[in-house]
Amino acid sequence: METPTPSTPIQLSNLEELQVEAASFAMTLIPADDHALLITLSGELGTGKTSFTQGMADALGIDDPITSPTFVLEKVYGLTGQKFSKLIHIDAYRLEGDTTLVPLGFDELYADASNLIVIEWPELVQSQLPLPDHQLTLTVSGEGRELIYA
User: Fold this and answer.
1) Chain centroid, CA 116 distance in Å
2) Domain assignment of residue 19, yes or no
């Protein structure tokens, strides 16, 4: 699969299709040279942000259950035999203020080019984020989902 074209909406009938798309997307990712690869996932509650991350994690060989880090804010998964050393999953839904990513060690995580960082609800911490390498937006569309890569 090639990296999706920006702003091309993809119609997905169910969460299983969303996870398959996420797995395919994960396999196209290439580490950046000087920083962690940053992916943001935007969308209302229930649109499939965590399901997308689950599909990516599955493709990266993570056997641990992937759940939303809404209450713990951040989960770090070690990767072996992959192009990235860690998957860092951050949920910014409960974060507020200009320094909320600081206690999570975001700057250090972002400085490590071997990391893959996925942030749900990036709009809540936008002022603290560098420009993402991939911005994804999910919406509910009828019984399915619509995914837009930007």
Assistant:
1) 8
2) yes
Structural contact between residues 133 and 116, judged by C-beta atoms closer than 8 angstroms:
no
Asked whether residue 2 is domain-assigned, the answer is: no
Structure tokens at 119: 């942030």
What range does the domain containing 38 cover?
9-149
Angle subtended by helix axes 15-28 and 49-59, to nearest 10:
50
pLDDT tens, position by position, 61-76: 998 888 876 666 889 9
Number of domains, the chain = 1
| CB distance 138 to 53 below 8 Å | no
Which of 147, 135, 116 is closest to 48 using CA atoms? 147
Q: Is 4 among the domain residues?
A: no
pTM: 0.91
